[in-house]
């Protein structure tokens, strides 16, 4: 069904629903707390105030209803929503002029904005999508909407009318890209036109009601100076990582969900010289590289019959036949680990990837497990040899309790000693306490150890000032 038809289809019902709508639980709570007022005078005032409020709300709904009807009327004559949108505000002005009841107190802008959000955007969450400070939006059923603002989770006062309303927004998101959500496919991944990633899951799988999670696409992706400014890493660490990328070391960014792995991977990828051919491989394209010569590949989930899926592993294998100078893999989480390690060990150096894990040591252990997924019978020692030979640097990223993202470790993978992979931290984050404002205090410090690959860096004509490994002066986090 086209967007237009859906609006036509849904709106009459919508208007009635708005009309029927009961005060939201928040409002009711206010009322019941009002009852505790003992002084009679206060009670009267309160009652007066709340009845004024209800009256205002009713007027507000009435204006919205009339406006809705007029828009529907117009839509009967023309099918072009875009032509109507600029006229909505004028229509509202006219309605207010013609109806005495709306004179004075009504907030026209708010009514018009809400209607526009429903017509053109994604309903009640539209303001969050437009707000540049908001990085994620989480709808847990109609009455609970969270957002992440500047790294912190916040409960908003946004709500949907009901489950139908949330479903309607989900449909609006997934329909343009040819996906659907219903009982037979109750989970869906999609992307907004601006590239933001969306996941939706509905009842009976989601018990809260239809649930939407949106990871917003950074309009201007962060660059290294942003990360330094956020104190995710120091200037010295940045200098070091820039050199590692240019020297074609294989680098793995490890961290939890939302710790900033992909962002760091993006920043690191932008250190790759412009004259190299870069192939990126992701589940859902998030990387935004500034270089000219970039080929982006995206995996595809199987269809309902379980057919037609293309995995990250398929893409990694394919990419090696594409004459890449660099392969950048969004997230390694399964059998592709084996192909990636083999590629890194056979001349495709300078590769970058991320993986989900809590420490560099844990990342190694997980890679071992992932290689086993590939279904090749390899002795553990052989797997470790592969890992130690392939990966040069692990960057551990973490989202701290105060919401900040930090590179808490830059660790060199030095090699295999006996059965053990030797790791050496080059930089670490030392937490020193919690400040009064709740921020975590600490320092990002070099351990003082120069990496074994320092000579490799120098051989590639890259010099790092030695004080990068010892300077502790300006490491305030
Ligand atoms: N260093 C950082 N400082 C502040 N915010 C960040 C940083 N890195 C990422 N973010 C924000 O955190 C969210 C998750 O980042 P992302 O890189 O996608 O994490 P991951 O790939 O680990 O899941 C995004 O909204 C992003 O804008
Ligand atoms: Mg990611």
Automatic annotation (TrEMBL):
Pfam families: T2SSE
Name of protein: CpaF family protein
PANTHER family: TWITCHING MOTILITY PROTEIN PILT, TYPE II_IV SECRETION SYSTEM ATPASE
Record-level Gene Ontology MF annotations: ATP hydrolysis activity
Biased composition (Basic and acidic residues): 1-11
Bacterial type II secretion system protein E domain boundaries: 120-397
Protein family (similarity comment): Belongs to the GSP E family.
Span list, region Disordered: 1-57
Origin superkingdom: Bacteria
InterPro entries (alphabetical): P-loop_NTPase, T2SS/T4SS_dom, T4SS_GSP_E_ATPase
């Amino acid at each position: 069904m086209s967007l237009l038809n859906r609006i036509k289809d849904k709106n009459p019902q919508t208007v009635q629903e708005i009309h029927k709508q009961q005060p939201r639980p928040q409002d009711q709570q206010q009322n019941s707390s009002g009852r505790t007022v003992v002084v009679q005078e206060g009670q009267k005032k309160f009652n007066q105030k709340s009845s004024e409020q209800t009256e205002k709300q009713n007027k507000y709904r009435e204006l919205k209803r009339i406006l809705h009807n007029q828009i529907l009327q117009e839509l009967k004559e023309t099918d072009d929503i875009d032509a109507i949108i600029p006229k909505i505000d004028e229509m509202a002005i006219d309605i207010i002029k013609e109806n005495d009841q709306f004179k004075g107190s009504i907030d026209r802008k708010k009514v018009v904005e809400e209607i526009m959000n429903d017509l053109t955007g994604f309903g009640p969450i539209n303001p969050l999508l437009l707000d540049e400070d908001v990085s994620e939006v989480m709808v847990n059923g109609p009455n609970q909407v969270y957002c992440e603002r500047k790294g912190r989770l916040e409960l908003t006062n946004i709500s949907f009318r009901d489950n139908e309303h949330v479903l309607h927004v989900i449909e609006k998101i997934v329909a343009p890209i040819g996906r659907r959500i219903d009982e037979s496919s109750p989970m869906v991944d999609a992307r907004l036109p601006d590239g933001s990633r969306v996941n939706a899951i509905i009842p009976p799988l989601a018990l809260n009601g239809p649930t939407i999670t949106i990871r917003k696409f950074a309009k201007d992706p962060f660059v290294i100076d942003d990360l330094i400014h956020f104190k995710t890493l120091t200037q010295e660490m940045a200098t070091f990582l820039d050199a590692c990328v240019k020297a074609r070391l294989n680098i793995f960014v490890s961290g939890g969900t939302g710790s900033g792995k992909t962002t760091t991977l993006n920043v690191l990828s932008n250190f790759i010289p412009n004259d190299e051919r870069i192939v990126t491989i992701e589940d859902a394209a998030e990387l935004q590289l500034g270089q000219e010569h970039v080929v982006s590949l995206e995996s595809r989930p199987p269809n309902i019959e379980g057919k037609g899926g293309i995995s990250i592993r398929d893409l990694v294998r394919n990419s090696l036949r594409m004459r890449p100078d660099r392969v950048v893999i969004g997230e390694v989480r399964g059998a592709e680990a084996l192909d990636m390690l083999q590629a890194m060990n056979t001349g495709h150096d300078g590769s970058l990837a991320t993986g989900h894990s809590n420490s560099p040591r844990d990342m190694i252990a997980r890679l071992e497990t992932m290689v086993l997924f590939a279904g090749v019978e390899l002795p553990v020692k052989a797997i470790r040899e592969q890992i130690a030979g392939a990966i040069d640097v692990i960057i551990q990223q973490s989202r701290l309790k105060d919401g900040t993202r930090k590179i808490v470790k830059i660790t060199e993978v030095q090699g295999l000693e006996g059965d053990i992979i030797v790791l050496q931290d080059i930089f670490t984050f030392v937490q020193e306490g919690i400040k009064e404002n709740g921020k975590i205090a600490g320092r990002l410090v070099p351990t003082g150890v120069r990496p074994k690959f320092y000579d490799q860096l120098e051989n590639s004509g890259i010099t790092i000032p030695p004080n990068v490994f010892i300077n502790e002066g300006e490491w305030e986090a």
